[in-house]
Amino acid sequence: MKRIVLLLKGMAMGGADVIPGVSGGTIALITGIYEELIHSIKSVDAVALKLILKLDLRGLWERINGAFLLNVFAGVLISIFSLAKLITYLLEVYPIPVWSFFFGLILISAYFVMPRTRGWVVYLSMFVGVILAYLITSLTPGNTPEELWFIFISGAIAICAMILPGISGSFILLLLGKYEFVLGAVKNLDLAIIAVFAAGCAVGIIAFSKVIHWLLLHHKGVTLALLAGFMLGSLNKIWPWKDESGDVFVNLSPNDFTTITGQPNQLYLAIIFFSLGIIIVGGLEWIGKKIA
User: Fold this and answer.
1) How many CA atoms does the CB half-sphere of 132 hold within 13 Å?
2) Is the torsion defined by CA of 231, 258, 98, 87 positive or negative?
3) Per-residue confidence (pLDDT) for residue 292, from 0 to 100
4) Chain centroid offset of residue 228 CA
5) What's the CA gap between 72 and 16, in Å, rounded?
6) pTM of the model
7) pLDDT tens string 218-247
C-alpha cells in the first residue's frame, strides 16, 4: 500500500512538473515527502559510487533509500509520458478552472509550509523568496541554442527549480526557450535529446539536493520560510485571468479579462476550483495530523 501511495505522489509531482508555473517540489511539500526526497537524492554521493564499484547493490539500495526513490520517480515518469497530452489539453480547453485550482492549492500550501515559530528573520526570508520568485516568473522567454551541450545545461538548471517549491522547472525551460523542444522530444521519443537532458537533470539534482539538505538541517525554519515565499511569489505566474496576446503576459481582474479578451471570466467556476484546491490540501493536512 505504501508503494502505491508513493507512486501516486510521484505521479502528482510529474503532472505538476509538466505545467509551466507549477512545481513538483510544491507537490512534494504538500504530500509530505519533500525532506525525505531531498535526503534520499543527497545520498547519491561518493560513498554510493564506491558501493557501485564494489558491486554492493544491496548496500547501495539501502544507502540511497532505493525503494522510496524508485516509486516516486516511477510515478514522475509515468505522469510525464502519459499525462503530458492530457494536461496540455486541459490547460488549452479549461485554463481558468485549472489555474484557479492550482492557485488555491499553492496559496494554502504556503501557509502550512511556513514554520510555526516565527521571527523577523523568518519573515525576511519569506519576503526574499516572494521577491525572487516574482522576478523569475516575470521574465520573458528567450531564444537559445539547440546543441546538446545546452540541452544538458537546461536539464541541470530546470531540475534544480523542479525541486524548489514555487519555482517551476517547466517555466525555467520556457525561459531557456527549451520547453516545447524537450516536450516534443518526449512525445516523439527522441532518445538522444532525452538521454542528454536526463543526464543534465541527474547532475543538477544530485548537486542541488546537497545544498537544500544542508539548509534544512542547519536552518530549517528560515529555509521553510524561503520555500513558502517562493510558492507565494509564483502565484504571479498562475493567476487565472491573463492577457497573453503580447510578448509578455499581463494579469487582469476577472472583469477586465472579459472586457479585453471578449471571453467569459468563469468567475463562479474559478471560485469552486480555487476552493477545491484549498479543501484538498487542508484535508491532507488534517489527515496527516490524525495519523501522526
Assistant:
1) 18
2) negative
3) 47
4) 13
5) 13
6) 0.69
7) 888 888 888 888 888 878 878 889 887 666
For 251, the enclosing helix (H) or strand (E) is strand 250-251
Grid cell at residue 250: 499581463
Grid cell listed for 35: 525532506
DSSP letter at 163? T
Three-class DSSP category at 72: helix
**Averaged pLDDT, 171-185:** 76
Tens digits of residue pLDDT in 136-169: 777 766 667 778 888 898 888 888 766 776 566 7
Q: Residue 281 and residue 57: Cα distance in Å, rounded?
A: 38
CB neighbour burial string for 24-46, b if at least 16 within 10 angstroms, e if fewer:
bbbbbbbbebbbebbbbbbbbee
Bridge partners (DSSP) of residue 242 are 251
Cα(291)–Cα(284) distance, integer angstroms: 10
How confident is the model over 117-139, as pLDDT tens digits? 778 888 999 999 899 888 877 77
pLDDT of residue 142: 60
Question: How many CA atoms does the CB half-sphere of 84 hold within 13 Å?
Answer: 16
With CA atoms as reference, report the closest residue to 135 among 91, 166, 101, 98: 166
Q: Buried b / exposed e across 1-20, counting CB within 10 Å, b at 16+?
A: eeeeebbbbbbbbbbbbbbb
Place of cell 479585453: 260
Arithmetic mean of pLDDT, 43-62: 83
End-to-end Cα spacing for the chain: 17
Contact status, residue 100 vs residue 274, Cβ threshold 8 Å: yes
Torsions phi, psi for 254 (to 5 deg): -55, -40
